[in-house]
């Protein structure tokens, strides 16, 4: 595996730490900013909205820029946004910095994904993308719990400063390791890449991504209050459980990466089924041991699907373009937006923190239906047709 792929994974670690550390910081941020927990949870959705919008716009608008230069520029914007966020004294400014940093993150994801799949043979795309997404899973093991722990002891702003510094380190690594690439070819290439979106199978693949991601994050976004208020876990145990979720995610992402190239649909069905079982257990959990075990399983199953989701999207598109990578990034973050919003809606409606697990179950059922349709279309296309006279 080229060194550049691991360096890009390191960069995703920095970006992913910021994206998900809000989960463990929600109670403290809500108090400091004078807002409710569901309102603080919208900072997660704000990041996701920026990712949804930013990925395709930056992919289209930056074709003429050298890839490494673009990666570096986006990391600089991301780091600067976190400095401003750490210095902000109001919810509105912080919300804006989350959107800006998300747009930069989205552009980085899109370019990094396209760079990754072009650095390896087609038969190793799943493994290479697992390394890239692995940066996100390691962020859940190390970055998110560390950010939560730092926020509990030194305030949530200290976690933002730490991410800003980590992003600078990532930028230096990108500068030293990622090879120079040619500039894009401009408008003709854009028109060519846009043609892949005429394929209904690509839209179906993107829908599966969004639904499965929403399933995971409707619950994950509110794990801290769910575990403390419902399952009876001490608040000091939240960083440990988040680390366990990330540990499960690491196991899942690399297991899924090994299977995704050869068994994409089987990997997706297995991951989805196990995740749904974990969510049902979490919905009924009033015991910390049961709840923590369910969180660990959810992390493993939810992230095991990611490499296969990416592989299926590229296969449906029939290419490895930056715009396809941008579309998968947007689809993942449609899920990241939809999940926390739906979960927050049920909490605000007085249904309790356990309701978010049932929201996830419903989203998982929709993902299962979409996946089944995709499989049927795939089987129809790959089954030899009899020719009659």
From TrEMBL:
Major localization listed first in the record, in broad terms: membrane
Pfam families: MFS_1 (PF07690)
Major facilitator superfamily (MFS) profile domain ranges (all copies): 4-382
Domain of life: Bacteria
Keyword Cell membrane: yes
SUPFAM superfamilies in UniProt: MFS general substrate transporter (SSF103473)
UniProt key word Ribosomal protein: no
PROSITE patterns named among the record's database cross-references: MFS (PS50850)
One GO CC term, this protein: plasma membrane
InterPro entries assigned to the protein according to its UniProt record, in alphabetical order: MFS, MFS_dom, MFS_Efflux_Transporters, MFS_trans_sf
Compartment annotation: Cell membrane
Keyword terms of this UniProt record: Cell membrane, Membrane, Transmembrane, Transmembrane helix
Single Gene Ontology MF annotation: transmembrane transporter activity
Annotated transmembrane regions: 42-63, 70-87, 99-121, 128-147, 159-182, 202-224, 236-256, 263-283, 289-306, 313-335, 355-375
Membrane topology: Multi-pass membrane protein
Protein name in the entry: MFS transporter
Protein's organism: Amycolatopsis dendrobii
Organism lineage string: Bacteria, Bacillati, Actinomycetota, Actinomycetes, Pseudonocardiales
